[in-house]
Amino acid sequence: NCFANELTVTNKDSDGNYISAHGGGIYSSNGKYFWYGENRYSGSNSGVSMYQSSDLLSWKNLGVIFHSSDIKGDSGEYFLERPKIIYNKLTHKYVMWFHVESKKGNYKSALAGVATSDALQGPYHFKYASRINKGKPPINGNYVGNKLANSVNKKYSKEGQMSRDLFLYKD
Protein backbone atom coordinates (compact mmCIF):
# COMPACT_ATOMS: atom_id res chain seq x y z
CA ASN A 1 0.00 0.00 0.00
CA CYS A 2 1.05 3.54 -0.74
CA PHE A 3 0.10 6.44 1.52
CA ALA A 4 0.86 10.06 0.62
CA ASN A 5 2.04 10.93 4.13
CA GLU A 6 4.67 8.19 3.94
CA LEU A 7 6.16 9.33 0.60
CA THR A 8 8.14 12.28 -0.57
CA VAL A 9 7.71 12.45 -4.33
CA THR A 10 10.33 14.50 -6.09
CA ASN A 11 9.57 17.03 -8.80
CA LYS A 12 12.68 16.00 -10.74
CA ASP A 13 13.41 12.93 -12.84
CA SER A 14 16.41 10.61 -12.48
CA ASP A 15 18.46 12.98 -14.70
CA GLY A 16 17.75 15.96 -12.42
CA ASN A 17 15.32 17.66 -14.83
CA TYR A 18 11.91 18.91 -13.74
CA ILE A 19 9.08 16.46 -14.42
CA SER A 20 6.69 17.82 -17.04
CA ALA A 21 3.50 15.75 -16.80
CA HIS A 22 0.67 18.17 -16.04
CA GLY A 23 -2.98 17.03 -16.09
CA GLY A 24 -2.32 13.36 -16.82
CA GLY A 25 -2.30 10.28 -14.68
CA ILE A 26 -0.42 7.20 -13.54
CA TYR A 27 -0.84 3.85 -15.29
CA SER A 28 0.26 0.67 -13.48
CA SER A 29 1.50 -2.24 -15.59
CA ASN A 30 3.62 -5.32 -14.80
CA GLY A 31 4.82 -3.96 -11.44
CA LYS A 32 5.88 -0.60 -12.89
CA TYR A 33 4.25 2.81 -12.79
CA PHE A 34 4.01 5.13 -15.78
CA TRP A 35 3.35 8.82 -15.10
CA TYR A 36 2.18 10.69 -18.18
CA GLY A 37 0.88 14.18 -18.80
CA GLU A 38 1.20 17.44 -20.67
CA ASN A 39 4.73 18.43 -21.58
CA ARG A 40 4.45 22.20 -21.53
CA TYR A 41 7.83 22.92 -23.05
CA SER A 42 7.49 24.85 -26.29
CA GLY A 43 8.73 23.65 -29.64
CA SER A 44 9.23 20.08 -30.79
CA ASN A 45 8.87 18.62 -27.26
CA SER A 46 5.34 19.95 -26.74
CA GLY A 47 2.87 17.09 -26.25
CA VAL A 48 2.64 14.20 -23.78
CA SER A 49 5.62 13.07 -21.69
CA MET A 50 5.97 9.75 -19.91
CA TYR A 51 8.06 8.72 -16.91
CA GLN A 52 8.61 5.24 -15.43
CA SER A 53 9.10 4.18 -11.82
CA SER A 54 9.16 0.97 -9.80
CA ASP A 55 8.71 2.71 -6.42
CA LEU A 56 6.72 5.93 -7.11
CA LEU A 57 9.71 7.89 -5.78
CA SER A 58 12.27 8.00 -8.58
CA TRP A 59 11.15 8.60 -12.18
CA LYS A 60 13.01 7.88 -15.42
CA ASN A 61 12.08 10.13 -18.34
CA LEU A 62 10.88 8.02 -21.30
CA GLY A 63 10.46 11.11 -23.47
CA VAL A 64 7.58 12.57 -25.44
CA ILE A 65 5.18 9.79 -26.46
CA PHE A 66 2.88 12.04 -28.51
CA HIS A 67 3.74 15.39 -30.09
CA SER A 68 1.22 18.23 -30.35
CA SER A 69 2.53 18.86 -33.86
CA ASP A 70 0.99 15.51 -34.91
CA ILE A 71 -2.55 16.88 -34.38
CA LYS A 72 -4.08 17.60 -37.80
CA GLY A 73 -7.02 19.86 -38.56
CA ASP A 74 -8.25 22.99 -40.31
CA SER A 75 -6.97 25.55 -37.81
CA GLY A 76 -3.21 25.18 -38.21
CA GLU A 77 -1.28 24.54 -34.99
CA TYR A 78 -2.83 22.91 -31.94
CA PHE A 79 -2.01 22.16 -28.35
CA LEU A 80 -3.42 19.50 -26.07
CA GLU A 81 -4.44 19.24 -22.43
CA ARG A 82 -5.52 16.59 -19.91
CA PRO A 83 -4.36 13.37 -21.63
CA LYS A 84 -5.82 10.08 -20.38
CA ILE A 85 -4.79 6.55 -21.45
CA ILE A 86 -6.75 3.28 -21.38
CA TYR A 87 -6.15 -0.13 -22.93
CA ASN A 88 -8.69 -1.48 -25.42
CA LYS A 89 -8.80 -5.29 -25.17
CA LEU A 90 -10.75 -5.62 -28.43
CA THR A 91 -8.22 -3.76 -30.59
CA HIS A 92 -5.15 -4.57 -28.44
CA LYS A 93 -4.27 -0.86 -28.56
CA TYR A 94 -3.60 1.81 -25.99
CA VAL A 95 -5.96 4.72 -26.55
CA MET A 96 -5.12 8.26 -25.50
CA TRP A 97 -7.94 10.82 -25.18
CA PHE A 98 -7.15 14.52 -24.73
CA HIS A 99 -8.60 18.03 -24.97
CA VAL A 100 -7.48 19.85 -28.16
CA GLU A 101 -7.34 23.60 -28.79
CA SER A 102 -6.18 25.67 -31.74
CA LYS A 103 -3.26 27.95 -30.84
CA LYS A 104 -5.14 30.82 -32.46
CA GLY A 105 -8.63 29.90 -31.21
CA ASN A 106 -8.81 31.49 -27.74
CA TYR A 107 -10.23 28.25 -26.26
CA LYS A 108 -13.10 28.05 -28.75
CA SER A 109 -12.12 24.73 -30.37
CA ALA A 110 -12.93 22.52 -27.34
CA LEU A 111 -12.29 19.27 -29.24
CA ALA A 112 -11.82 15.73 -27.96
CA GLY A 113 -8.72 14.16 -29.50
CA VAL A 114 -7.77 10.50 -29.89
CA ALA A 115 -4.42 8.82 -30.58
CA THR A 116 -3.52 5.12 -30.40
CA SER A 117 -0.41 3.01 -29.86
CA ASP A 118 0.57 -0.66 -29.80
CA ALA A 119 2.61 0.01 -26.64
CA LEU A 120 1.86 1.99 -23.50
CA GLN A 121 5.13 3.90 -23.93
CA GLY A 122 4.18 4.94 -27.47
CA PRO A 123 4.65 6.28 -29.96
CA TYR A 124 1.01 7.34 -30.27
CA HIS A 125 -0.52 8.04 -33.67
CA PHE A 126 -3.15 10.72 -34.10
CA LYS A 127 -6.58 9.46 -35.22
CA TYR A 128 -8.93 12.46 -35.00
CA ALA A 129 -10.11 15.48 -33.03
CA SER A 130 -13.72 16.59 -33.05
CA ARG A 131 -16.66 17.77 -31.02
CA ILE A 132 -18.74 14.94 -29.55
CA ASN A 133 -22.50 14.30 -29.67
CA LYS A 134 -23.02 16.35 -32.80
CA GLY A 135 -26.58 17.73 -33.02
CA LYS A 136 -27.56 16.62 -29.51
CA PRO A 137 -28.46 19.08 -26.74
CA PRO A 138 -26.27 19.20 -23.61
CA ILE A 139 -27.40 17.35 -20.50
CA ASN A 140 -25.15 18.77 -17.78
CA GLY A 141 -25.46 21.77 -15.50
CA ASN A 142 -21.81 22.82 -15.31
CA TYR A 143 -20.65 26.40 -15.64
CA VAL A 144 -18.39 27.90 -18.29
CA GLY A 145 -17.12 31.10 -16.72
CA ASN A 146 -20.24 32.60 -15.16
CA LYS A 147 -22.68 31.09 -17.69
CA LEU A 148 -24.47 27.79 -17.34
CA ALA A 149 -22.86 25.33 -19.78
CA ASN A 150 -26.25 24.36 -21.19
CA SER A 151 -26.85 27.88 -22.53
CA VAL A 152 -23.28 28.13 -23.85
CA ASN A 153 -23.37 24.65 -25.45
CA LYS A 154 -26.81 25.07 -27.05
CA LYS A 155 -25.41 27.44 -29.64
CA TYR A 156 -22.75 24.86 -30.50
CA SER A 157 -24.91 21.72 -30.46
CA LYS A 158 -24.98 21.52 -34.27
CA GLU A 159 -21.16 21.32 -34.19
CA GLY A 160 -21.12 18.99 -31.18
CA GLN A 161 -20.49 19.46 -27.48
CA MET A 162 -17.38 21.14 -26.11
CA SER A 163 -14.74 18.90 -24.54
CA ARG A 164 -12.39 20.27 -21.94
CA ASP A 165 -11.27 18.37 -18.83
CA LEU A 166 -11.58 14.69 -19.64
CA PHE A 167 -12.05 11.69 -17.41
CA LEU A 168 -12.31 8.13 -18.66
CA TYR A 169 -14.13 5.21 -17.15
CA LYS A 170 -13.56 1.69 -18.38
CA ASP A 171 -15.83 -1.12 -17.22
Molecular structure report:
With 171 residues, the protein is mainly beta. Helix content is 4%, strand content 40%. The protein contains 1 helix and 10 strands, in the order E-E-E-E-E-E-E-E-E-E-H. It has one helix at 149-154, and strands spanning 22-29, 32-39, 47-53, 60-67, 78-88, 93-102, 111-117, 125-130, 143-144, 147-148. A 4-stranded antiparallel beta sheet has the order 1-2-3-4, with no helix packed on it. Strands 5-6-7-8 form a 4-stranded antiparallel beta sheet, with no helix packed on it. The chain has a two-stranded antiparallel sheet with strand order 9-10. A hairpin with a 6-residue loop joins strand 3 (47-53) and strand 4. The longest helix is centred in the last third of the chain and has 6 residues, at 149-154. The two termini are 23 Å apart. The mean pLDDT is 84.
Which tags fit this structure?
single chain; 171 residues; mainly beta; 4-stranded antiparallel sheet; globular
Q: Concise description?
A:
The protein has one helix at residues 149-154, and strands at 22-29, 32-39, 47-53, 60-67, 78-88, 93-102, 111-117, 125-130, 143-144, 147-148. It has 171 residues and is mainly beta.
Mean pLDDT: 84
Ranges where pLDDT stays below 50 over 5 or more residues in a row are none
Helix content: under 10%
Tally the beta strands. Answer: 10
Structural class: mainly beta
Strand arrangement, largest sheet?
1-2-3-4
Strand content: 35-45%
> Which value, in Å, is the CA radius of gyration?
17 Å
Major sheet size, sense and barrel closure: 4 strands, antiparallel
